[in-house]
Amino acid sequence: MGKKLIIGSSGQIGTELILALAKIYGEDQIIATDINPKAKDEIDGILFHQMDVLDVDHLESVVKENQVSEIYLLAALLSAVSEQKIRSAWDLNMNGLFNVLELARRGVIERVFWPSSIAVFGPSSPKKNTPQNAILEPTTVYGISKCAGERWCDYYFKKFGVDVRSIRYPGIISYKSKPGGGTTDYAVEIFHEALANSKYTCFIDQDIYLPMMYMDDAIRATIELMSVDKGMLPAFKSYNVSAESFSPSEIAKEITQFIPDFKITYSPDFRNDIALSWPSSINDDEARQDWGWQEQYDIKKMTEKMISGINSNLNVISS
Ligand code: SER
């Protein structure tokens, strides 16, 4: 096995995935890349290249020069930003994937991780406990790109034997890195605002449930799926993975256990419509059966970790 390349290293998942992979495989086995040159400052001890995944020649030279065999393609525009930048979202979310799949087809790399999302589902999918093979008729730009991306991964898997693996991430919640431009971002912002100001104005309505997951579970799911023997995955599936599902009012209630004077108000914007088009919970039986997925965090355990994690970061800043 060669080295592991992370594209989009300064994003919410990239920031933490790099550290987790470096811990398992060694810092010298990980190469970080991001379009933002400042991303370099965030990672000690890991080789960084500033790179745009749409620059296919640069991508290939970074891969070859560093003996990369595995790519984690995390560069994408998320759901809220994609609605504002339709063409750029399609371009980055599709052509970035295409460039990486082509490297795999030509045998330059051996394995690809590409994240999909609960956004592949739309209003015509079952709302609760949405199954792996539910109808996919997304009504968002982001969802359309993820849905098409899944089809391309399946095509490259079947037609060319490309070893591409994928997870439909729910909203990811973490205190070490902030999300950027998603609909589920409220579930991270709420913790920061609760600790800083004891109040939060939420951009989605109080009773909209969405599938969510604490970052440690998301990172573990990614690494576990990428570590499974190829023979164990006879078909391409972008796996549903489930951990928790909650609404803004429910997470606010959990937060008041720690911050009793915390107050939430609601001012829904366009992201409310995006949230309404997505499932409220998803069924992940296939991930459990095929590669043993099992979550470790529920809403209570996650809330404790978020509050203590953000608090300790604030203490480090103020001391
Ligand atoms: N967290 C993503 C978003 O809100 C969904 O996969 O865009």
Quickly describe the structure.
By secondary structure, this protein is α/β, with parallel strands linked by helices. The protein has helices spanning 12-25, 56-65, 79-84, 86-105, 141-160, 186-197, 215-227, 248-256, 270-277, 285-291, 299-318; strands at residues 3-7, 30-34, 47-50, 68-73, 111-113, 116-117, 164-169, 171-173, 199-202, 210-214, 238-240, 244-246, 263-266.
Distance between the termini: 43 Å
The CATH H-level homologous superfamily of the largest domain: NAD(P)-binding Rossmann-like Domain
Element string (H = helix, E = strand):
EHEEHEHHEEHEEHEEHEEHEHHH
State the CATH architecture of the largest domain: 3-Layer(aba) Sandwich
Largest sheet: 8 strands, parallel
Bound molecules: serine
Number of beta strands: 13
List the helices and strands and how they pair.
Layout: E1 3-7, H1 12-25, E2 30-34, E3 47-50, H2 56-65, E4 68-73, H3 79-84, H4 86-105, E5 111-113, E6 116-117, H5 141-160, E7 164-169, E8 171-173, H6 186-197, E9 199-202, E10 210-214, H7 215-227, E11 238-240, E12 244-246, H8 248-256, E13 263-266, H9 270-277, H10 285-291, H11 299-318
Parallel strand pairs: 1-2, 1-4, 2-3, 4-5, 5-7, 6-7, 7-11, 8-10, 9-13
Antiparallel strand pairs: 10-12
Helix pairs in contact: 1-7, 4-5, 6-8
How is this structure best described in words?
By secondary structure, this protein is of the alpha/beta class. It has 2 domains: 195 residues, 3-Layer(aba) Sandwich (Rossmann fold), CATH 3.40.50.720; 107 residues, Alpha-Beta Complex (UDP-galactose 4-epimerase, domain 1), CATH 3.90.25.10. It has 11 helices and 13 strands. The strands form 3 sheets. Strands 1, 2, 3, 4, 5, 6, 7 and 11 form an 8-stranded parallel β-sheet that branches. The protein starts with a strand and ends with a helix. It binds serine. Serine binds next to loops.
